[in-house]
Amino acid sequence: MLSKKQLKPSITVCGFEAEIDGKKKVKGIVKEAKQAAKEYDEAIQQGHGAYLLEEELQDIFQCSIGNITAGQTIAIRITYVTELKHDTESENLVPDVVSYTYKTDYYLKLAITCGMTSVIQSIESPFHHISVELNIDSNPNVSKVTLAEQITYLEKDFILVVKSLGLDQPR
Predict the structure, then answer these.
(1) Which segments constitute the VIT domain (predicted)?
(2) Contact 163, 121 (CB under 8 A)
């Protein structure tokens, strides 16, 4: 279920999907925030698996997952489209005080396909170790980015700096 709080013009969620143990897939439906939260709580109380994706701030999402059984594997896939900001437009957020446990058996996995209007020269992340694959399908305008380390949460904003030819040209 997707919570429709206040969709920003800079991002559009195209899909939300939960895959349970590599077999069963649950697809999200956009609903008003209160209704989505109510249905999520009802599903939890009835003992069903439940998933809720909410946009907390612009481009920042929180995913709640309820009633996972021991040994169960849940893969969450969020598909969205957004306009990439120029590096001078980036704003770092001040994180809330949150405590995390370091003892987990789950990890965060990010797989990003970056398509530009011209040749991608490089992609970097100032706070995270990433792996970059340039020239996807022999297209120099497309690259794939993944995390190069196993982490359970992001301590800082995940920022990608993409250098591409002709970014200063009108388009």
Answers:
(1) 1-82
(2) yes
What does the alpha-carbon distance between residue 74 and residue 100 come to, in Å, rounded to a whole number? 19
30-42 pLDDT, tens digit per residue, is: 888 899 999 999 9
Note the pLDDT tens digit of each residue in 138-166: 999 999 999 998 888 778 888 888 899 88
Per-residue tokens: 59: 């481009």
* CA–CA dist 47, 143 (Å, integer): 42
- Residue 119 falls in which region: left (phi positive, over 0), alpha (psi -120 to 50) or beta: beta
Q: What is the DSSP string of the chain?
A: -EEES---TTEEEEEEEEEETTTEEEE--EEEHHHHHHHHHHHHHTT--EEEEEEEETTEEEEEEE-PPTT--EEEEEEEEEPPPPTTT------------S--S--B--EEEEE-SS-EEEEE-SSS-EEEE-SBTTBTTEEEEEESS-BSS-SS----EEEETTTTS--
11's tokens: 């991002």
Residue 37 to residue 53: CA distance in whole angstroms: 10
